[in-house]
Amino acid sequence: MTALSAVSSTAAAGTRLDEVSGERTVDPSGELFLPYLGRVSVLGLDTSGIRGRLEQLYGALYSEPVVEVVTSVNVNITGAVRNSGRFFVSPSATLVEALAEAGGIQSEVDVGLVGGASDPSQVRLVRDGLSTVIDMRPLSIRPDVVNLPVQSGDWLFVPRARRSQVRDDVNFWGSILTTALTLASLVVLIVR
Length: 192
Known about the structure:
The chain is α+β, with helices and mostly antiparallel strands. Helix content is 27%, strand content 23%.
């Protein structure tokens, strides 16, 4: 939850205009700490309720305060995404949109890929202590999942794809063989 922009809107000669602005986060007890007001409880209020409460409180300090309240929810996104971390997104954001904020799910062909590709079939959503596995593969994702809104405190974990030992061995020995053949070709060219 971010809040706040209170500006004195009437001025006379010599009047000092003050502006209080910035982002504020509602703490776990449902309170905001605001300049000139201190702690203000906003627990259970919607956006318009918060705006009204702040206009009332700042109205005692400013004539005609202008208060803007913008809400966002925090989502933690970790694992095989380009930028893992904590993200503040719109309350109407979906899981897909939240993952896009983190750079999306990594594929094997991503430039700058670190640590390997993701396994989009095993994306884990932890919400209110309950863990749910979601298949986010493009051809498998269900419409209700595409439109599932995030909630504040959600944690999305995108696991790395399991690597095949056979594939890794083929890649390793293939690179050795390619190097050996290149050296052999070079020797043949030099000897001729």
